[in-house]
TrEMBL record:
GO terms for cellular component: membrane. The keyword Cell cycle applies. Residues 58-246 are annotated as: Disordered. This is Cell division and transport-associated protein TolA. Keywords: Cell cycle, Cell division, Membrane, Transmembrane, Transmembrane helix. Residues 148-183, 192-211, 218-235 have a biased composition (Basic and acidic residues). It comes from Nitrosomonas cryotolerans ATCC 49181. GO terms for biological process: bacteriocin transport; cell division. The chain crosses the membrane at residues 12-37.
């Protein structure tokens, strides 16, 4: 029974599978051909622009009721793609055969009807009136109704123009300006230099002309007085020789003065160095005496020693005044006194040193003598 039931259900499953596959194929075809895969091209926007309000034609109420109403159709201006849309300065002339169109209403408030014909303005209303008068009337009894003002009138082009914002200087513009200034300064300096050279050249030419004139006069004079010229040449030669001698003497004196000044400077430096050395040595002696006094104040001397024995020690110091090593160089002959002095040296650490670190070499290996009686 189970096998028979499964065999009976096989045709239903096959039909369901076929229907499912068919539905999926139809859905795929609809998706492929029904959707728009490419974006439609952008179309230009058409806007009705009004330069000025059209003025009503002056006529009596009777003619206004008889003549048909004529309105000025708005001019459609399509903006060009590369340039922004700008309002046209003047509207195109009216065409009599175009159908009457209503202007685009933008304002929220409805326009007020004109009860009486307004006075026509001198300049803007003339083209409209001339166009209406030139149009042939369909009948003598029909008269155009007063033209209503549009909801929004285009303002004057000059009033809508915003002031051009001043372009802020960029660093590149500032660099260009600086380079231009430098170039102008260099050009001015070059012109000034050329002007100075020109003036010097003119001065040189004038001097040259004067010199040539003097030479010419001198040549004329030499022709008359050749003998006197030879004497003058001899005198000038003597003067040149004397000038050279004086120049050499002056140079020798200058060199001698320079050598003397250098010798005096060296002497002063040596004297200053000697004075500084003496001052340093005085500082060394002062701190050595302070070290000995500090050690002597800490010596516990044994009593009743004969004479005035002296103990001599060699002390090695560190830069901070600490004691590195103590060595007995010469005994006083009394071991008790020698030991007392050695203990006092260690107790006195750190020993006083001058603040100048360059003087530490005088205290690295220090010889100390301590007497029994001061």
């Amino acid at each position: 029974m189970a096998l028979r039931d499964s065999s009976r259900s096989e045709p239903g499953l096959l039909l369901a599978s076929i229907l499912t596959l068919l539905i999926h194929i139809i859905f795929a075809i609809v998706m492929v051909f029904g959707l728009q895969w490419n974006d439609p091209p952008l179309e230009g926007m058409v806007v009705d622009l009004w330069h000025e309000l059209p003025q009503p034609v002056q006529s009596s109420q009777k003619e206004a009721s008889l003549k048909p109403r004529v309105t000025q159709p708005p001019v459609k201006i399509a903006p060009s793609p590369p340039k922004p849309m700008q309002p046209s300065a003047k509207a195109e002339p009216l065409q009599s055969k175009q159908p009457v169109q209503q202007p685009v209403k933008v304002a929220s408030l409805p326009p007020k009807p004109i009860q009486q014909p307004a006075k026509a303005e001198p300049s803007p209303a003339k083209p409209v009136q001339q166009a209406i008068q030139a149009e042939p009337l369909p009948s003598k009894t029909a008269a155009p109704a007063p033209i209503k003002k549009p909801d929004i009138a285009l303002k004057d082009k000059t009033k809508d123009l915003k002031p051009i914002e001043e372009k802020k200087p960029t660093p590149e513009d500032q660099d260009k300006k600086n380079l231009e200034k430098q170039k102008n300064a260099m050009q001015a300096q070059l012109q000034h230099k050329q002007e100075q050279e020109r003036l010097r050249e003119q001065e040189r030419l004038r001097d040259e002309q004067k010199r040539q004139a003097a030479q010419k006069a001198e040549a004329q004079r030499l022709e008359r007085e050749q003998e006197r010229l030879r004497d003058e040449q001899k005198r000038q030669a003597a003067q040149r020789a004397e000038a050279q001698r004086l120049e050499q003497e002056t140079q020798r004196k200058i060199q001698l003065a320079a050598e003397q000044a250098e010798a005096q400077r060296l002497q002063r430096e040596q004297a200053q160095q000697a004075a500084a050395r003496a001052r340093l040595m005085g500082e060394v002696d002062k701190y050595k005496a302070m070290i000995v006094a500090k050690i002597r104040s800490r010596v516990i001397t044994p009593p009743n020693l004969p004479g005035n024995p002296v103990a001599e020690f060699s002390v090695t110091l560190l830069p901070g005044g600490d004691i590195l090593a103590v060595k007995l160089r010469k005994s006083s002959g009394h071991p008790a006194f020698d030991n007392a002095v050695e203990r006092a040296i260690f107790i006195s650490a750190p020993l006083p040193l001058p603040p100048d670190p360059t003087l530490f070499t005088e205290f690295r290996n220090l010889n100390i003598k301590v007497y029994y009686h001061e």
